[in-house]
Specification:
5 helices; globular; 5-stranded antiparallel sheet; single chain; alpha+beta; 5 strands
């Protein structure tokens, strides 16, 4: 059983260079402008769990949802693989065969993971925001989805 993390993860859309600058500012403890979703009490591990759940929900299980180191200058900055970006973005419009809302189901399943610091209703807000960020990546030029995580 993992101990509860006192850290946080910040997820944002940026180009590679912008991501490195943001990571350097976050590592210095500086205030950082721009759109991002900051989730207290989780790390990159929980973000990967969300990717797996989103992939299963949109019938894309088994793809690579492992976050990857972006640059040797920051071991806290990780890139979100394209498969996870697509799966998260699809949560906004995915039609399921059943009556359930896929995004709601993913949010509930994510909140139910071991040691998650929030419940299903708060999880739904986070998943909606992250899905919207992922959709932004798909329409942006040379941008990616990044996770900066500290425990």
């Amino acid at each position: 059983m993992r101990a509860l993390s006192m850290g946080f993860a910040e997820i944002f859309v940026a180009t590679h260079d912008e991501a490195l600058k943001r990571a350097a500012a976050l590592e210095r403890g500086a205030d950082v402008a721009g759109s991002a979703v900051r989730i207290d009490g989780i790390t990159d591990f929980e973000v990967e769990q969300l990717g797996d759940l989103a992939g299963q929900a949109v019938h894309a299980a088994g793809a690579d949802y492992e976050l990857a180191l972006v640059d040797v200058t920051s071991d806290a900055l990780l890139g979100v693989p394209e498969a996870m970006v697509r799966a998260l973005a699809e949560l906004l419009s995915y039609e399921s065969e059943g009556d359930g809302n896929v995004l709601d189901d993913v949010a509930a399943a994510w909140a139910a993971q071991e040691d998650m610091p929030f419940g299903a209703s708060e999880s739904k807000g986070y998943v909606q925001q992250l899905a919207a960020l992922a959709a932004d990546v798909e329409s942006a030029d040379r941008a990616g989805l990044f996770v900066w995580s500290v425990s």
